[in-house]
Amino acid sequence: MLSSREWRVLALLVVSGFINYIDRSNLSIGATDIQVELHLSNLELGKLFGAFFWTYAIFLLLIAGWLVDRYHVGWVLAAGFFFWSCAMAATGLARTFAVLVALRLLLGMGESIAYPAYSRILANHFPEHHRGLANALIDAGTKSGPGLGALVGGFLIHEYGWRASFLALGLGSLVWLVPWMLWMPRGKGVSAREDPAGIPSVFEIFRHRSAICSALGLFCSNYFWYFLLTWLPPYLEKERHFEKRKMAIFVALSFFCVAFSCVISGWLSDHLIARGGTPTRVRKAFAGTGLTLATIILPAAVVRDWRTAMALLLLACLAYGIYTSNLFAITQTLAGPRASGKWTGVQNGFGNLAGVVAPFVTGWVVERTGEFYLAFVVAAAVALAGAAIFVFGIGEIRQVEFRTRQFNSSTVSLIK
Q1: How many domains are contained in the chain?
Q2: Host domain of residue 166
Q3: Sign of CA dihedral 197, 198, 199, 204
């Protein structure tokens, strides 16, 4: 059982993930209003959706993992949280397309800190048989965040306009910093490393097939997720002709389904491992099954009856939650405590390039064809490819061996 202190830390990480995804997804809720006000094409809207992910991915690849492995992870997370919340609030004041793009780039910089910090904290403070649930709860926060954001944002935008929504959510989220300053984890496990030379390099990490495949698999699964996160609201408004509040309700239900399924699946995977199941068999089974069943989303774009379509959409989201519950538990086991921050940062950096590709490709398809069907086909196909990579590409799920040089005493050591 987790201690009360561990539960407090975990609860705050869950809330931060919740806020993180409200902030990055709120743009899609107000997309049609912003598009009309600023006279944007579908292709320009796709570029705006993708702007966040350029800096998000680059900072994950080059900076975020390095920061959380070199400095006190609690303070690094606090700084990133403050930065992204301010960028979110400022978006409500933007008057041009260029300023909106610039603020989305700043938002991406701040939010890049989150997942490497989560992995560093969990890998150092939570044992293997608790990481499935811990990661699932954080992931549930990131999935229910867009759900509540859609619900609240949809109604705020309907009543007060899209600018008020950004200002309220950005400034209101700063309250999280108060309990985090009081309860953040402290001690050697989260402070700066005593021997930075002992941390494996990016090259050393990606010498291993499991690192390459985890990044490729995340890219595929993220393509599916960011397709939903950015274009599901416009799809329901443009093609299904849902009015704003109806759209908000079904977008919220979709993301809540991912969160609910994620928590149940995370608990179940931990239970199976505690009962003797190997992390390889259990976590691969959840990842492969979830992504494969998520392709149920394709017929959701075909059926005419909106009730049937929404039922299929919710089923696809439940399936996706089965996968997400075990994603970062896989990463943390493979990387181990020493490399968890950097591995997660680089993996997320590559995987989140899907956040650039998915919105752009979808916007291009919709602009050229005038409908969303082919965009759904691409999303389903990429998710299926992700399932194959996790099941067949990643080998045994156990901590890999990193060979790094340490020059403290002119020795070369093998770090596990």
Answers
A1: 1
A2: 4-184+199-400
A3: positive
Residue 191 lies in a domain: no
Q: Is the pLDDT of residue 21 over 90?
A: no
Which two tokens mark 33? 């209003």
Residue with tokens 């030379």: 197
Rounded to an integer, what distance in angstroms lies between the CA atom of residue 128 and that of residue 257?
26
Helices (H), 39-72: 42-59, 65-70
What CATH number should be reported for the domain holding residue 342? 1.20.1250.20
Residue 411 lies in a domain: no
- Is position 255 within any domain? yes
- Over residues 376-401, the pLDDT tens digits come to 999 999 999 999 999 999 989 988 88
Reading the block at residue 119, the tokens are 């992995």
In-domain check, residue 353: yes
Contacts of 192 (CB under 8 A, 6+ apart): 70, 71, 72
The model's pTM: 0.77
Q: Which residue has the tokens 């181990």?
A: 336
The Cα 250–Cα 256 span in angstroms is 10
Could you give the 3-state DSSP secondary structure of residue 201? coil
Q: What is the mean pLDDT of the chain?
A: 87
Whole-angstrom Cα Rg for the chain: 20
Cβ contacts of 208 within 8 Å, gap of 6 or more: 334, 400
141: amino acid identity, one letter: G
Residue 410: is its pLDDT beyond 50? no
Alpha carbon distance 161, 173 (integer Å): 19
180, β-bridge pairs: none
